[in-house]
Amino acid sequence: LVCFVILRPGQAGTPELALELQDLVAAALGKPLAQAQDLHEHDRSNVPMMPSRDFISSMALFFRDRRRLVLGRETAQQVAERFSQAIASVLESHGSGNVVVVTHGTALALFAADHGAGDAFQLFRRLGLPSYASFSCPDFKVLQIVERV
User: Fold this and answer.
1) 47 contact partners, CB below 8 Å, separation of at least 6
2) pLDDT tens for residues 91-135?
3) SS in 3 state form for the chain?
4) CA 43, CA 23: separation in Å to the nearest integer?
5) Which band of pLDDT confidence, cut at 50, 70 and 90, is reported for residue 9?
6) Letter string b/e over residues 93-111, b meaning 16 or more CB atoms within 10 A of that residue's CB
7) What is the pLDDT of residues 49-85, one digit of tens each?
8) Is cis: bond before 130, omega within 30 of 0?
9) Cα–Cα distance, 101 to 107 (Å, whole number)
10) Burial code of 43-76, b = ≥16 C-beta within 10 A, e = fewer?
11) What is the largest CA-CA distance in the chain?
């Protein structure tokens, strides 16, 4: 599930707008929808725009040398640990039943690779928009990866 809002010129996204979108989607689905902490993308807020080839090369190093700060404000290892802890927290607070988590490709690729999906960088490169993965619980065995919906 991917949700987005197209803003009019001069408008900016706000926390209030995010909550409004969450409420609209929850009503449309007839299901509860809640935000959770630390499921976000690798923090690249300090990275300027760069040519695609430079970005891809940097990301290859990011995935290969997981403990080295290559790009952005987090190492790949920090992203993987943050995301895994967030998943555990979501599952603990949710109880039983299926859970859907919406995240971004870098975090998903790291999590999936850590649970048997192969090379994280190669998976990151293959993931289209949108894509998804499903895992068993509680062992997080990769059940399916759909690289492009």
Assistant:
1) 71, 72
2) 888 877 778 787 889 999 999 999 999 999 999 999 987 788 999
3) CCCCCCCCCCCCCCHHHHHHHHHHHHHHHCCCCCCCCCCCCCCCCCCCCCCHHHHHHHHHHHHHCCCCCCCCCCCHHHHHHHHHHHHHHHHHHHCCCCCCCCCCHHHHHHHHHHCCCCCHHHHHHHCCCCCEEEECCCCCCEEEEECCC
4) 26
5) low
6) eeeeeeeebebebbbbbbb
7) 999 999 999 999 999 999 999 999 999 999 999 999 9
8) yes
9) 11
10) ebeeeeeeeeeeeeebbeebbeebeeebbbebbb
11) 46
List CB contacts of 61: < 8 A, sequence separation 6 or more.
Answer: 68, 70, 71
**pTM for this one?**
0.82
